[in-house]
Amino acid sequence: MPPLAVSVSRDGPVTVVRLDRPAVRNAIDARTARGLRDAFLAFDADPAASVAVLAGRDDAFCAGADLNDAAALAEAVAGPDGPLGPTRLLLGKPVVAAIAGPCVAGGLELALWCDLRVADETATFGFLERRFGVPLVDGGTIRLPAVVGLGRALEMILTGRLLDAREALAWGLVTEVVPRGTHVERAVALARRLAAFPQACLRNDRLSLYESLGLPVAEALSLEARRGAATVASGETEAGVRAFLAGKGRGGTFE
């Protein structure tokens, strides 16, 4: 039996999911796709887990689909899960990508599925499959323009050119760039910060954002109000107001 292609570890409320196929720059075959999907479904169902970090092993995030398994991946295109595993899921909790080295082709689609992206200075981004007629089928044509805007998305998708980490930061494709080799540490620190906030409010605001994309304004506002009402009903808002009135966070401090 070959070794597991996906490893999972816990750091308090943070779940760290790692692609573990360094020999192929963490390219994803059908088995790896199943492992990723299972790992993130387990994270979403775990009441003790608040935020996940997705990283690659060694010096690559993900080189995309493993074309040595092209037949199985092609079969998954029309299925409910998609070739890469989790990219057609809307989780109830946030995921932070920790990126070093190549984040290309389907690997870039996987990073776009995450909510936030932390890159080290070695990271590169691009849809290199443009040269080979391999389509974007894991959300790239939908999520990239939502992150960087239509014009820049068209440039990346049509030309297939590579962006380095600094250009990706200037475009808003990544949240921040950190020194080489510190991307996972920084992503875990960011994830822990998110996990420290009141979780019902954070999760409802996040889902309101995703679920309202493309809706008419009236429907989006109604959805936002329903999510907000659920947060108030959880008791978090009342507790937060009491803490503020007692002096927490006064003077611009942010905890």
What does this structure look like?
This protein has helices at 30-45, 70-76, 106-113, 140-148, 150-159, 165-171, 183-195, 199-212, 217-234, 236-245, and strands at 6-11, 14-19, 51-56, 95-99, 102-104, 116-120, 124-126, 163-164, 176-178. It is α/β, with parallel strands linked by helices. The chain has a 6-stranded mixed sheet, sandwiched between helices. Helix 4 (140-148) crosses helix 5 (150-159) and helix 8 (199-212) runs antiparallel to helix 9 (217-234).
Q: Number of DSSP helices?
A: 10
Shape, please?
Answer: globular
- Beta content: 15-25%
On the 0 to 100 scale, the average pLDDT is 93
Q: How are the strands of the biggest sheet laid out side by side?
A: 1-2-3-4-6-9
Main sheet overview: 6 strands, mixed
> What is the helix/strand order?
EEHEHEEHEEHHEHEHHHH
Radius of gyration in whole Å, from Cα?
Answer: 19 Å
Distance between the termini: 47 Å
**Beta strand count:** 9
Task: Assign a percent range to the helix content.
Answer: 40-55%
Specify the structural class.
alpha/beta
Q: In terms of per-residue confidence, which ranges show pLDDT below 50 for 5 or more consecutive residues?
A: none
Would you spell out the secondary-structure blueprint of this structure?
Layout: E1 6-11, E2 14-19, H1 30-45, E3 51-56, H2 70-76, E4 95-99, E5 102-104, H3 106-113, E6 116-120, E7 124-126, H4 140-148, H5 150-159, E8 163-164, H6 165-171, E9 176-178, H7 183-195, H8 199-212, H9 217-234, H10 236-245
Parallel strand pairs: 2-3, 3-4, 4-6, 5-7, 6-9
Antiparallel strand pairs: 1-2, 7-8
Helix pairs in contact: 3-4, 4-5, 8-9
